[in-house]
Specification:
Blueprint lengths: L1 E5 L2 E3 L21 E3 L1 H15 L5 E8 L3 H11 L3 E6 L6 H15 L3 E5 L10 H9 L2 E12 L2 E8 L2 E8 L2 E5 L11 H7 L4 E5 L31 H10 L5
Helix pairs in contact: 2-5, 3-4
The protein binds adenosine monophosphate.
The site of adenosine monophosphate has 23 residues, from helix 1, strand 4, helix 3, strand 6 and helix 4.
Length: 249
């Protein structure tokens, strides 16, 4: 069984984001980019399933600029078998990504597609769900445990206040949550080996998908800075402030 893992190139999670002066988005000039952290977890899970003898091949796919090749190479260095770059410049919204992934899935016929639950740049949390809708496959979102069981997969999901386990017939779609696993680091020899692994480049047109944005970002703003706290003299003062200033009592 083949596993398809979509990996997105995003601003590294350690970078302190700056909003552009005109509010049209965030400043990407000279900013470190990395694989979306939830996608690292997705790659790790696919590799563990392959190592357990439950999958035969792990294929990673990224939709983005030429530099997204680096993201694919990172996944190959972790242990994925081959990569597909669907080269698109500029912003690609989740619907266009999902349409491309549907076409890739039609060609590759994976048993499982494992995505991140969310890309940390756009925070959309939409692509896996849209892909499930477009393919008609079952989806197990926010997975904290994935167990393949014959022609089905049991997915334990992190839901408010607890866990829920769903059983999906393959092919199926899983999106990863933080607690699913701890992704491995690529070793130097594996980074070298990854340079020789196959990486195919395609365009959105190859899959007949129009990637033109369907929405316009009206405004991007930084969160308001925190104001300094005050020390109150007594519990009575505190209650008064909560009543009169904070308006929470
Ligand atoms: P989102 O719906 O944008 O929050 O993204 C959820 C997940 O979809 C990500 O964690 C990736 O697994 C996948 N994804 C989103 N955009 C892309 C992209 N441009 N290329 C590859 N995978 C993507």
């Amino acid at each position: 069984m083949k596993i398809l893992v979509p990996v997105k190139r995003v601003v590294d999670y350690n970078v302190k984001i700056r909003v552009k002066a005109d509010g049209t988005g965030v400043d990407l000039a000279n900013v470190k980019m990395s694989m979306n952290p939830f996608d690292e977890i997705a790659v790790e899970e696919a590799l563990r399933l392959k190592e357990a003898g439950k999958a035969t091949e792990v294929v990673v796919v990224s939709i983005g600029p030429a530099q997204a090749q680096e993201t694919i190479r990172t996944a190959l260095a972790m242990g994925a078998d081959r990569g597909i770059l669907v080269q698109v410049d500029g912003i690609v919204e989740p619907l266009a990504v999902a349409k491309i992934l549907k076409a890739v899935a039609a060609e590759e016929a994976p048993g499982l597609v494992i995505l991140g639950k969310q890309a940390i740049d756009d925070d959309c949390n939409q692509t896996g769900q849209m892909l499930a809708a477009l393919t008609g496959w079952g989806q197990g979102t926010f997975a904290s445990k994935v167990e393949l069981d014959g022609e089905a997969v049991n997915v334990t999901r992190e839901v408010d206040g607890g866990l829920q386990t769903v059983r999906l017939t393959l092919p199926a779609i899983v999106t990863t949550d933080l607690r699913l696993n701890e992704p491995r680091y690529a070793s130097l020899p594996n980074i070298m080996k990854a340079k020789k692994k196959p990486l195919e480049t395609k365009s959105a047109a190859d899959y007949g998908v129009d990637t033109a944005p369907r929405l316009k970002v009206v405004k991007t703003a930084e969160p308001k800075g925190r104001v300094a706290g005050v020390r109150v003299a007594s519990a009575t003062d505190l209650v008064m402030k909560l009543k009169t200033e904070a308006g929470v009592l």
